[in-house]
Design a protein that fits this description.
- InterPro entries: MetI-like (IPR000515), MetI-like_sf (IPR035906), Phosphate_PstA (IPR005672), Phosphate_transprt_permease (IPR051408).
- Keywords: Cell membrane, Membrane, Phosphate transport, Transmembrane, Transmembrane helix, Transport.
- By secondary structure, the protein is an all-alpha fold.
- It contains eleven helices and no strands.
- Helix content is 75%, strand content 0%.
- It is globular.
Length: 295
């Protein structure tokens, strides 16, 4: 061993400093944990109070007439059949229109537009639509389809809801396809399959549960939209399945009845709000179960 070799220097632990730092960290942890628990409790209290009020008043107003009678003048014991059917028609058509468009755009962004400037522009526009207030979409469709054609219509409501669901499906489809391993794509391409077949048989099949989850979340979003329908389909208190005329919908009926001075209309508004809440709850449960099954 060389005479110039020096023993390794080890840091000396100051027990007093370590104890002081440990007490400070523990105190900070307790404060942050307490604030987090308090914020969680406050949020849960408000959510629980809303849900309890909704379920109590909604179930109290629920009866067979809600599902078998159309909306009628005050005191006539009407129901919400026309509003329920109108909402179903508009939501289903909007989903059938918006889902293929959203899937194709999301597929383009994930499979063809990686690193391209045009893909970045499309993704940016999609993100803007995803976060845009729904009333702005309603105003856009009002200028595009209501004013030029001289009146409100169910088709205008369908168009507004389709525009809302498209960016949700786009974002979900792109994210789910991005999770598909590239090795699967390379294996299929290496076997001589064209790219479109690789996308249909491998990418879509691998990401189908996540894509369906996004579609269900999009349906849950548009099922309770009121603002865009005020400027498009407007609403109708009579039975109507004519998409070329003003069309009833559950959110519009709730909006109109909740602010009325008539007690029977207010009770119907609570019943309609409960129906939408239960529908959205079931869709979210279905989406989570599908996503969990896909994982």
């Amino acid at each position: 061993m060389s005479a110039t070799t020096q023993p390794a220097l080890t840091p000396v632990k100051d027990l007093a400093v370590a104890a002081r730092l440990g007490r400070g960290r523990k105190r900070t942890d307790v404060i942050i944990r307490t604030l987090s628990l308090a914020a969680t409790a406050i949020g849960l209290i408000f959510l629980a109070s809303i849900l309890i009020t909704l379920f109590v008043k909604g179930f109290g107003a629920m009866n067979l007439a809600v599902f078998t009678e159309v909306t009628k003048p005050p005191g006539s014991e009407g129901g919400l059949l026309n509003a329920i059917v109108g909402s179903l028609i508009q939501v289903v058509l909007a989903t059938l229109i918006g889902t293929p468009i959203g899937m194709l755009v999301g597929t383009y962004l994930a499979e063809y537009a990686q690193g391209s400037r045009f893909g970045d522009v499309v993704r940016f526009v999609s993100d803007i639509l995803l976060s845009a207030p729904s009333i702005l979409i309603g105003l856009f469709v009002y200028q595009l389809l209501v004013l030029p054609f001289g009146g409100f219509s169910g088709w205008a409501g369908v168009a507004a809801l389709a525009i809302i669901i498209i960016p949700i499906v786009v974002r979900t489809t792109e994210d789910m396809l991005s999770l598909v391993p590239n090795t699967l794509r390379e294996a299929v391409i290496g076997l001589g399959a064209p790219k479109w077949k690789m996308i249909v048989l491998v990418s879509w099949r691998s990401a189908i549960s996540g894509i369906i989850t996004g579609v269900l979340l999009g349906i849950a979003r548009i099922a309770g939209e009121t603002a865009p329908l005020l400027f498009t389909s407007l609403g109708n208190n009579a039975w109507s399945t004519n998409l070329s005329a003003p069309m009833p919908s559950l959110p519009i009926t709730i909006y109109s009845y909740a602010g009325s001075p008539f007690q029977d209309w207010i009770e119907l508004a609570w019943a309609g709000a409960l129906l939408i809440t239960l529908a959205v709850l079931l869709l979210n449960i279905g989406a989570r179960s599908l996503l969990g099954r896909g994982k």
